[in-house]
Design a protein that fits this description.
heterodimer, A: 303 residues, alpha/beta, Metallo-beta-lactamase, Chain A, seven-stranded mixed β-sheet, 14 strands, 25% helix, globular, B: alpha/beta, binds zinc ion
Chain lengths: 303, 279
């Protein structure tokens, strides 16, 4: 397997001189098998550039694309209307997502292209879309990929994916808060709320399930939006730090961690520091820590 | 009056080396009157940079007041809203004014939908700590904005309408005509010409190259030539090309400016993120 990062930023795209090296586009990762099969994880603004590449490869011919969504916050879906293969007639796009709000999935995702937001509604796009609701605990198969959805701790819910193919595996763990101070539910948090005994149980169960699913995974991509001091100020925003990711990876026996979903305010210089700091911290406990940047490609597993 | 472009890109925010000189942020433009009154047009990603600038002053203390005009609610004009930090400080008073996007759907309901729980953790305008008021207007009249005189008109933009603005202060006038496509290039609509009449600065949609324009008639955007025609007929003193295509690199925009300048006596430049400019 091979993974390629097309957008590594969280929250919103950040153009400019400060983000030239790590990149300014939001969440989107391409996962490809040795045979060339592909799934796309998240449809943030990085998806535009991926789409341009795939459209060139398709050379006008329709194809089928599979898109796994962690959740539908804008930074994870905004690239979808700019995915150029969607404008090739005959193209089929299968979208997999958690149903986090009352609406039907197609309404939520179609909603981003409503008249007032985007010039062309989803129904008018030449590609045919189908929507699949994922449920943590219920595995599914997409071509040569075996996909395991994992519940995460994020406002209104989010789901990570363990993806197995070619005899190896990669996990995408974004967006998520750690599993101690705050339990995200289906309401707005102005700040951390006191945890009930049930909340504690739910957090522990979510954390245990995540660690169990990550066992044996070759590479883990993790939401490390915050530096520790930023996390202390915004523990209710639904994101983690590299330190929290390292603890989870260590418990799961994972040997390679990729830092991902960088805060929009982190400049290239800051990211260089983050990369150096956590490369050393990881090395001390036997974990290779890589800091994702736009365009980074990684082989997964031996082959 | 001064102007500062915080975002000049159309459709899609572009990061990377090819977009550094003109900037990759989507639409957001600040107007600053000599007496300190401010006005923002549009809330694209450029507004997040403007927000940082504001937070260093009275907005960081919850003492800021800001009127925001929206041309329309396509995402490249509102995608900075959930990240516009002055909204999160109690005491700030921010008024967003725009036309209802379609009949039966108010501006407020549209922005509320942008912050719906599945799309944004903010989960609704009511969770913004600042005092935020959203008011719809019907284009064609004037708006009451402290420190400025603002005239509005609806102009066609593909399947919808956008609002164009003529904004005056300190005896100077800026006309904002972005996200517009006239039924015919050679016949700019009278309401556009009226707003641009004798303007000191005309900011005009220049999204399409001439080739794209031929292929994308009806998509709701203009080539640079449309701005030239409006500027010449309305006797505007300067033309700023705006709403650059996400495909247009810095070098490509340079070329458009050189070519367009060669076709008219009106001074032409391409809007770029950066410093305050005198109008
Ligand atoms: Zn995110
Ligand atoms: Zn999110
Ligand atoms: Zn636009």
């Amino acid at each position: 397997m091979q993974i390629t990062f097309w957008g590594v930023r969280g929250s919103y795209p950040v153009p400019g001189a400060a983000t030239v090296r790590y990149g300014g586009q939001t969440s989107c990762v391409e996962v490809r098998t040795a045979a060339g099969e592909c799934v796309i994880v998240d449809a943030g603004t990085g998806m535009r550039q991926l789409g341009n590449k795939l459209a060139r490869e398709a050379n006008g011919q329709p194809s089928q694309y599979h898109v796994l969504l962690s959740h539908v916050h804008w930074d994870h879906i905004q690239g979808l209307p700019f995915f150029s293969p969607a404008y090739i007639p005959g193209t089929r796009i299968s979208v997999y997502a958690l149903l986090t709000a009352a609406d039907e999935l197609n309404q939520v995702i179609g909603g981003i292209t409503r008249h007032e937001f985007f010039p062309m509604p989803l129904e008018a796009v030449p590609a045919a879309f189908d929507f699949h609701q994922v449920e943590p605990g219920v595995d599914f198969v997409v071509g040569g990929f075996h996909i395991t959805p994992i519940a995460l701790n994020h406002p209104f819910g989010s789901v990570g994916y363990r993806i197995d193919a070619d005899g190896s595996s990669v996990a995408y763990v974004a967006d998520t808060a750690p599993f101690d101070k705050v339990l995200h539910k289906q309401h707005f948090l102005a700040g951390p709320e006191p945890l009930s005994a049930d909340d504690q149980v739910a957090l522990t169960a979510m954390r245990d399930a995540l660690v169990a699913r990550l066992r044996g995974v070759d590479t883990v991509i993790y939401d490390t939006h915050f530096l520790p001091d930023e996390y202390e100020r915004f523990p209710h925003y639904g994101h983690s730090t590299p330190d929290q990711a390292l603890v989870i990876c260590q418990e799961a026996g994972v040997r390679r961690l990729v830092l991902y979903h960088h805060a929009p305010g982190h400049s290239d210089e800051q990211m260089d520091q983050v990369a150096a700091t956590y490369l050393a911290k990881g090395a001390a406990i036997g974990i290779e820590v890589l800091t994702s940047f736009e365009g980074m490609s990684l082989p997964i597993g031996a082959g | 009056m001064k102007i500062r472009f915080w975002g000049v890109r159309g459709s899609f925010a572009m990061s990377g080396r090819d977009f550094l000189r003109y900037g990759g942020n989507t639409c957001s433009v600040e107007l600053l009157a000599n007496d300190g009154h401010r006005l923002l047009v549009d809330l694209g990603t450029g507004a997040t940079e403007f927000a940082k600038h504001l937070m260093g002053a009275e907005f960081g203390k919850g003492q800021g007041k800001l009127p925001i005009l929206l041309t329309h609610t396509h995402l490249d004009h509102i995608q900075g809203l959930p990240f516009f930090t002055p909204f999160f400080i109690k005491g700030n008073e921010i008024r967003i004014m725009g036309a209802d996007p379609i009949s039966g759907l108010s501006l407020e309901a549209t922005l509320q939908n942008q912050l719906a729980p599945h799309y944004s953790p903010l989960n609704g305008l009511e969770n913004l700590a600042a005092g935020v008021t959203i008011s719809s207007f019907v284009p064609g009249g004037t708006l009451n904005v402290p420190g400025f005189t603002v005239q509005t008109a609806a102009v066609p933009h593909g399947s919808m309408w956008t609002t164009a603005f003529r904004i005056s202060a300190d005896g100077k006038t800026v006309t904002f005509l972005s996200d517009v496509e006239y039924p015919s290039l050679d016949e700019p609509l009278p309401q556009a010409l009226a707003l641009a009449q004798d303007a000191d600065l005309l900011i005009h949609d220049a999204m399409h190259s001439d080739l794209d324009y031929e292929m994308r008639r009806g998509w709701g955007h203009s080539p640079a030539r449309a701005g030239v025609i409006v500027a010449e007929r309305a006797h505007a003193k300067r033309l700023a090309l705006f709403h650059h295509s996400p495909d247009a690199t810095d070098d490509m925009i340079d070329e458009v400016v050189v070519r367009t300048s060669g076709e008219t006596n009106v001074p032409v430049f391409a809007a770029a993120e950066g410093a305050y400019l005198d109008v």
